């Protein structure tokens, strides 16, 4: 089957009418090209949308308090409540599947404008009271100095980590800032580090204009006591925060005498749930891309099947002579199938190569013109190429099956009479 004579025969048969063969091959080339481009475009859209999540730990949720909507145990509806550090301890103790339970407090943002002063420079920035593990939930690049640590928490050190936007607003270019002081609502905090966050959702500049200080120092400086404004909660690997959050809510409701069915009392944003929805959407888009691409490819396969039927008809006498000389049905069938698979593979891989070239050029254009919102790095991985190769081989066998069956049905005496 793989002898030189067999391959010479395949090349001679396919090149005998090269224009017809090229037109037939183009159908497969175009089909696999469309498949590759659709998958790459879907991947580019997926990369762009998922970049909006940043490097945030996606198995997380944010939780805050809202107005209680149902009376319970003699307490009226419409009242408000606050989280405290005991709630944080209770969640950590009762739900071991949680990796981080980070209490947070905030000045600025939805809490109102906040003046930060350094010398004659002032600015309005969000100021957060946080624990050191928050950098694991919202990864950021520490561009100088350090982030918060537990020594800061235990000693209630008035230190601050500022964003690059804060540094640019409060300090002159090239000015030393580590070890200097900024005044937040009249309280001095020493700058111990700067950070930056890469974002593609248009909020990059705003995210650099934030200040992080130790939770304990924040509480002491701004008279927060043990109050917690909101929490960032992350589940351990292998656990879903979406499945754990009802247990979280139950503990909070019990501790604050909230009706078990009061779903409005606790506000939350489930990042993992949103991420799963996006993930599911792109799985569906990938399935659609395969469906459309394979349909287009199928038209090319039909063309190859038709051309192989014509080739078999043209070689009827040759096949009859081979049968008369003792060629087995399998040798005839394998010859036709090999020709079909060969033509399909050559044209298909040409389509893959063309698709790869287009993707390369598109990435070069994107790199040259900067990031595009909701679209980044369109690409196909090795598994996609292997799947395409499998589809091509399967398609070639499918295209050649009927012509091969027709070929082995040729009777030598009938073939020799054929004109």
TrEMBL record:
Membrane topology field: Multi-pass membrane protein
Record keywords: ATP-binding, Cell membrane, Membrane, Nucleotide-binding, Transmembrane, Transmembrane helix
Residue ranges of domain ABC3 transporter permease C-terminal in the record: 291-412
One Pfam family named in its UniProt record: FtsX
Domain MacB-like periplasmic core per the UniProt entry, residue ranges: 21-248
Organism: Leeuwenhoekiella nanhaiensis
Major subcellular location class: membrane
Protein's recorded name: Multidrug ABC transporter ATP-binding protein
């Amino acid at each position: 089957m793989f002898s030189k004579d067999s391959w010479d025969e395949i090349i001679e048969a396919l090149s005998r009418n090269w224009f017809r063969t090229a037109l037939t091959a183009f159908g497969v080339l175009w089909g696999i090209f469309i498949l590759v481009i659709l998958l790459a475009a879907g991947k580019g859209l997926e990369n762009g949308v998922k970049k909006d999540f940043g490097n945030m730990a996606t198995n997380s949720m944010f939780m805050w308090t809202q107005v209680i909507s149902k009376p319970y145990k003699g307490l009226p509806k419409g009242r408000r409540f606050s989280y405290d550090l005991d709630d944080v301890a209770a969640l950590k103790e009762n739900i071991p599947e949680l990796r981080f339970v980070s209490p947070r407090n905030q000045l600025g943002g939805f809490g109102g404008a906040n003046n930060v002063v350094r010398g004659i420079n002032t600015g309005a920035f969000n100021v957060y009271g946080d624990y050191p593990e928050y950098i694991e939930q919202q990864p950021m690049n520490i561009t100088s100095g350090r982030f918060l640590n537990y020594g800061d928490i235990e000693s209630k050190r008035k230190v601050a980590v500022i964003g690059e936007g804060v540094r640019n607003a409060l300090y002159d270019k090239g000015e030393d800032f580590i070890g200097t002081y900024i005044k937040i609502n009249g309280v001095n905090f020493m700058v111990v580090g700067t950070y930056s966050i890469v974002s593609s959702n248009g909020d990059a500049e705003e995210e650099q204009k934030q200040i992080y200080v130790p939770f304990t120092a924040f509480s002491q400086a701004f008279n927060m006591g043990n109050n917690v404004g909101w929490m960032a909660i992350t589940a351990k690997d292998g656990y879903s925060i979406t499945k754990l959050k009802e247990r979280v809510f139950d503990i909070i409701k019990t501790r604050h005498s909230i009706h078990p069915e009061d779903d409005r009392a606790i506000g939350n944003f489930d990042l993992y749930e949103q991420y799963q929805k996006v993930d599911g959407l792109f799985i569906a888009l990938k399935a659609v891309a395969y469906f459309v691409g394979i349909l287009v490819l199928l038209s090319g396969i039909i063309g190859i099947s038709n051309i192989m039927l014509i080739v078999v008809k043209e070689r009827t006498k040759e096949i009859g002579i081979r049968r008369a000389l003792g060629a087995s049905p399998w040798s005839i069938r394998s010859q036709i199938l090999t020709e079909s698979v060969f033509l399909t593979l050559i044209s298909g891989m040409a389509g893959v190569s063309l698709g790869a070239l287009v993707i390369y050029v598109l990435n070069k254009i994107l790199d040259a013109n900067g990031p595009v919102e909701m679209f980044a790095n369109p690409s196909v991985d090795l598994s996609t190429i292997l799947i395409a190769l499998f589809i091509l081989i399967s398609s070639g066998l499918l295209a050649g099956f009927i012509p091969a069956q027709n070929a082995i049905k040729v009777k030598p005496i009938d073939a020799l009479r054929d004109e």
